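Human: I wish I could look at a protein chain and see how it folds. This is the protein in question:
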Amino acid sequence: MQYLEVKKGRVEIIPMIDIMLFLLI
């Protein structure tokens, strides 16, 4: 999944948003 690879770098910056987007999708 490219989503995880792209977000991996942002997980440290905004982990909550990452989870929210995942739930929305």
